[in-house]
Amino acid sequence: MPLDLSSLRATFQGTLVTPYDPSYEGARVLFNNRIRTRPAVIAKCADAGDVVAAVRFARDAGLPVAVRGGGHHASGFSLVEGGLVIDTGNLKDIAFDPGNATVVAGAGCGWRELDQVTYVDHTTPDGHGLAGPGGECPTVRNAGYSLGGGYGFLSRTYGLGCDHILGAQLVTADGEVLNVTGDEHPDLLWALRGAGGAGFGVVTHLAYRLDPVPRTVLGGVMAWSLDDAEEALRAYRDLYVGRDEDRLSIYLAIATDPYPDGEPLLMAYGMYVGPVEDGEQELAPLRAVGTPVFDAFGPTSYTDLQHALGAEIVYGLQLKWRGGYFRDGGFSDEAFAIIVDAARRAPSGYSMLRFDLLGGGAIGAVAPDATAFVHRSRLFNISIIAQWVRDDEAEANLRWTDDLQDALAPHLNGEVYQNYADADRADWAQAYYGATYARLQTIKQRYDPTDFFHHPQSIRLPG
């Protein structure tokens, strides 16, 4: 029997999508299309009032809920089987205060939309734009990104997305709207800065501080063949270990070029937040490695770089995402050999290995207990991302991912970036939150004592 949505439809301003609607299959698709979860209803909210109505309806109907922004949850926890999905992707209002260098953003805003307002369309008196530390993927929404940590090319200079959160508007399990600030509900603000997607409520808006970013930066991408990859990995390690400079933000990835039908290459991409000529000097050790296949670093703007790097990110492939942080000394020659060998044997041209710089600089300058984000001192991280199209490709790709994870286990420290959620981790609470987990449980008890907002890796109630 179809779910009776009449009471919800009476007040809901957005769109309600059920399995009986022609748009349902498309509305259900996540970034990870290996997830085949089928909700009873997807509530595409138009405003915070719709979120309140959806929460109250689900509570009264006894329906499980999930919260979705951009649909990028690696393990698919933004859908719930037979339940109600509260979709905040259409909450796109932006209130920019250039005088105070802050912005209040609806949960559905992407970083391109925010950067257009604060960086492209605005100039500070000293000729800069303003930006938050967003990522390059165009379909990631600011809320899910920031609440779980949130790193980008500005993070090593200015801090993580969660470090920039000044306040939030959140709908509780009772349908109450809370304004969360350092003065009102400071414990909840602490939890939202790093564990905000783990079951405290539905965030509808976030207030951020912004940072000055030059109009012209040194940015781009360069690449080496896999024959030079181990040398380049060593040079990258040596560039950052013990490094005080916090303006050079370079990530690595092994991916095919052209994507997905070309040969696998090791690519270095990112930017220098400062004068271009200074950036050229800082980048020199990487440019000296081997014989680059290409070197496209040069003067550019922050937003042009973000657009260029996000252009080939494909939404709707099947994927499995594993990995973790390297232990001290684990980002080593032995690990590099394992990684390059695995890259040569990847069964899909869509797959990639990413090495994101998630610690050090301004990230590491924050005490590990100052927010719910604890992974601040670890410089190096690997994401093993198998991606494929057809169901019959799944077995080979899943095996490739798990085999590489097992081979690298002695080199990793057991910590996992919570925005790269791994459904296979039985120890997820320790891997994501470490020593802060007990404090998060206490806050969960205070704001969601019935565990209304739960998924397989949400914060558990104490006891």
Could you characterize what this model shows?
The chain has three domains: 6-87, 2-Layer Sandwich (Uridine Diphospho-n-acetylenolpyruvylglucosamine Reductase, domain 2), CATH 3.30.43; 94-213, 2-Layer Sandwich (Uridine Diphospho-n-acetylenolpyruvylglucosamine Reductase, domain 3), CATH 3.30.465.10; 217-420, Vanillyl-alcohol Oxidase, Chain A, domain 3. 29% of the residues lie in helices and 22% in strands. It has 15 helices and 19 strands. The chain has helices at 6-9, 24-28, 48-61, 111-120, 142-147, 155-158, 186-195, 229-240, 276-287, 302-310, 333-344, 361-364, 394-408, 428-433, 437-447; strands at residues 15-17, 41-44, 65-68, 84-87, 94-97, 102-106, 129-131, 165-171, 177-180, 202-209, 211-213, 217-225, 248-257, 263-272, 294-295, 298-300, 318-325, 352-355, 381-388. α8 packs across α11 and α11 runs antiparallel to α13. The radius of gyration is 22 Å and the shape is globular. The two termini are 38 Å apart.
In short:
The protein has 463 residues and is of the alpha+beta class.
Instruction: State the name of the first-level CATH class of the largest domain.
Output: Alpha Beta
What structural category arises from helix and sheet content? alpha+beta
Give the low-confidence spans.
none
Largest sheet: 8 strands, antiparallel
**Radius of gyration (Å):** 22 Å
CATH topology of the largest domain: Vanillyl-alcohol Oxidase, Chain A, domain 3
- CATH architectural category of the largest domain: 3-Layer(aba) Sandwich
Global shape = globular
